[in-house]
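Lab meeting, item 3. Inverse folding demo.
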């Protein structure tokens, strides 16, 4: 997928609006070394949150995790694991689970679903998260089906919002 160079303009826009933004590459993506693994990228996200909280210029400010696609799926797991140190979650174009996204990618989806291991899933994580959630998903997303965004939203606790958009996956 992508890396921080793809997300620079979105982060710059947030800063222009008066927010602080912190973006990072997972292990094995962009400028980071290593090999990406599911547990490794969850550890990367948790480490990034710990780093943010350690900064004096962030103390006392609200922290919202914003993730897109793979990052949106991961954001749910990271938010649930770190609920005590964050204030909210935004997920855009996220898939509901590794098993379900695998099933949509292969002709015999039920076989893929059986073969894929699931260390964590957005749907399971979102059920255990109890702070504000915004789920954004496109009706025209050809990479991650719209129903996955709705499934995540339907499993989220209140307060929650769903924002339906129209455009390709993570533009």
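The presenter then showed the designed sequence:
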């Amino acid at each position: 997928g992508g890396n921080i160079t793809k997300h620079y303009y979105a982060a710059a826009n947030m800063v222009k609006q008066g927010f602080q933004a912190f973006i990072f590459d997972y292990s094995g993506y962009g400028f980071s070394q290593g090999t990406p693994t599911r547990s490794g990228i969850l550890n990367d996200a948790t480490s990034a949150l710990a780093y943010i909280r350690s900064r004096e210029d962030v103390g006392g400010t609200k922290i919202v995790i914003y993730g897109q696609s793979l990052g949106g799926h991961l954001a749910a797991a990271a938010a649930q694991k770190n609920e005590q140190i964050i204030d909210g979650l935004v997920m855009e174009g996220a898939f509901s689970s590794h098993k379900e996204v695998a099933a949509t990618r292969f002709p015999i989806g039920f076989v893929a679903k059986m073969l894929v291991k699931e260390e964590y899933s957005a749907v399971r994580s979102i059920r255990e998260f109890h702070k504000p959630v915004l789920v954004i998903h496109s009706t025209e997303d050809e990479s991650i089906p719209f129903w996955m965004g709705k499934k995540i939203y339907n499993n989220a606790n209140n307060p929650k919002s769903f924002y339906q958009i129209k455009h390709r996956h993570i533009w």
